[in-house]
Amino acid sequence: MAPPKVPAADATVRMLTFLAAQRSPIAAARIADELDLPRSRTYDLLATLVEHGYVMHLDQERVYGLGPAAHELSGAYLRQEPLARIGRRVMEAMVDEVGESGHLAVLHGRDVLYVIEERARNRPGLVTDVGVRLSAHLTASGRAILAALPPAQVRALFGTRADFTSRTAARGPEGPRDLRELLARVRADGVAHEAGEVTEELASVAAVVRDHAGWPAASVAITFEEARATEADRERCTAAVRAAAAEITRRLGGRRPEASA
């Protein structure tokens, strides 16, 4: 005999599942219609989820989307085994091929959280140990993921100049406009770059990993000494992160999102 449903819990789970399937935040009226919920109940549930960070409300656009807490749950799932198990051998093979250190990271609020690190022999130590968090806008790993998010999601995370920090003299984007321009270049190039903004004298290149819904689940990056890297070295690292990200995407059952009509 099936256990009885708890209506509020059932509606909440259906709402989060519905929002997770959308490519961008949407209006409350559409949520109510799609889930066949009363408008008043829909707004009450959304208000509770916003309060706890599982949903974000973009006031100016009057739309709702998943919030940082929901993405942290996703990151926790990935950290607890599947992504690390799937990605580790791919990362090991990539590092062996290029002879530079590599890492796999997921988005965690405004930060990236490193879930795999593979150190290459005779290469400088990195700050990207497993479990370390760094601001996403400064790292190649974070930029690769942010560039694959809907613009409204990026605005919710990095909407004001106060959301931006720096670590070194090689400052990264300092405000929303800088970040928008940088992410447009990432989308055009298909990979993200960072040079000296996390650790002086080191640079990174990263590519996004997508899940079954086409959502950016993680990113693969390689870090190298900027001064000693030739153009051929950089091209080899770029090709390697593209190939590794594509392979992990394939193993996750991931796909690229469909182009907008």
From TrEMBL:
Presence of the UniProt keyword Transcription regulation in the record: yes
Domain IclR-ED: 69-254
GO molecular function, one term: DNA binding
Name the UniProt record assigns to this protein: DNA-binding IclR family transcriptional regulator
Tree of life domain: Bacteria
UniProt source species: Brachybacterium fresconis
Domain HTH iclR-type: 6-68
InterPro entries, A to Z: GAF-like_dom_sf, HTH_MetabolicPath_Reg, Tscrpt_reg_IclR_C, Tscrpt_reg_IclR_N, WH-like_DNA-bd_sf, WH_DNA-bd_sf
Keywords on record: DNA-binding, Transcription, Transcription regulation
